[in-house]
Design goal:
The protein is α/β, with parallel strands linked by helices and about 300 residues long. Helix content is about 45%, strand content about 15%. It has a single domain, classed as NAD(P)-binding Rossmann-like Domain (Rossmann fold). It contains 9 helices and 7 strands. It has a 7-stranded parallel β-sheet, sandwiched between helices. Helix 4 links the parallel strand 2 and strand 3. The relative contact order is 0.19.
Length: about 300
């Protein structure tokens, strides 16, 4: 579940976080390459290389499929090879190009190898979608286990750091690029039981801002998407024991209807992927260092 439902938050705080001022740094060669690809082949990302972490399910899978459909050559990772091969096969059978590479974003050597292999396989790196993330069942802060706390932070913030660490040198060498990080509406407000998840996603805000300032002069944009409640397998960590699939589906729908003010439903992963397609494109060429809510109006009603 990306996002939450309760807790006070001022409109000023939300707007300040969601519309973080762009630094005004040029994207130069990256925008030019993206424009060339759009004009010269099928889809907005024809001829571009796109990397996705956590691409085997949920939002990451939807991103891999969406960018491949738009002509990108997609390298994506995840921990479960069976799921990865299935997504790779799905994309290729639809006429797209994708390569699954097993990697755990908590492991530096695996992340480095994944990034390097994607660049070697497809000859570049235009867009990196640093999406991998985990959540644990609702647990009050004082009852969160140290192991769960460490795992959430190792995946959600250290994993983003590692991905950027190994992506940025390639992008600088190639003249630019775009990094999109999957954050959460929890960057702006939270609810009881999500201390580890919220703190990890708040870390994304600072990391995106720092990376944007450092890398703008090198033609690299760095931004974050902040989904609200999205119907992905991540929601299943909150599933109560002993209920049927139908009961769980109804419970999720009820949660979304009470949490999302405008549309009264959870987002579909494909809707978040569509937002990433736009944000990574030259249409948003002056956006960097900012976090963009895609929450169906969830925070607008607070």
């Amino acid at each position: 579940m990306r996002g939450s439902t309760n807790g006070p938050l001022s409109r000023r705080a939300v707007l300040g976080g969601a519309a973080t001022a762009a630094t005004g740094l040029a994207v130069g060669a990256a925008s030019a390459r993206a424009a060339d690809g759009q004009a010269g082949g099928r889809g907005r990302y024809a001829g571009k290389t796109v990397l996705v972490t956590g691409g085997t399910k949920g939002i990451g899978r939807a991103m891999a499929v969406a960018f491949a459909r738009e002509g990108a050559k997609v390298g994506f990772c995840g921990r479960t090879a069976e799921l990865g091969r299935a997504v790779e096969r799905e994309i290729r059978e639809a006429g797209g190009e994708a390569t699954y590479i097993r990697a755990d974003v908590r492991q530096a050597a695996e992340v480095a190898a994944f990034v390097d292999r994607t660049v070697t396989t497809y000859g570049g790196l235009d867009v990196a979608l640093n999406n991998a993330g985990v959540q644990r069942p609702f647990t009050d802060l004082h009852e969160v286990s140290v192991a769960d706390w460490d795992d959430v932070h190792a995946t959600n913030i250290r994993g983003v750091f590692l991905a950027m660490k190994y992506e940025i040198p390639h992008m600088r060498r190639l003249g630019g690029g775009v990094i999109v990080v999957t954050g959460s509406s929890n960057q702006f407000q939270t609810r009881p039981g999500l201390a580890s998840y919220t703190s990890s996603k708040n870390g994304v805000t600072g990391l995106v801002q720092a990376a944007a300032i450092e890398n703008g002069p090198h033609g690299i944009r760095v931004v974050a998407l902040a989904p609200g409640i999205t119907d992905t397998p991540m929601l299943d960590v909150h599933r109560p024991g002993g209920i049927s699939d139908g009961e769980w589906a109804r419970l999720k729908a009820d949660l979304a209807s009470r949490s999302v003010d405008a549309f009264k439903r959870a987002a579909r992963p494909e809707e978040i992927a569509t937002a990433a397609l736009g944000l990574a494109s030259p249409d948003f060429g002056f956006q960097t260092g900012s976090t963009h809510l895609v929450d169906g109006g969830q925070l607008a009603g607070l």
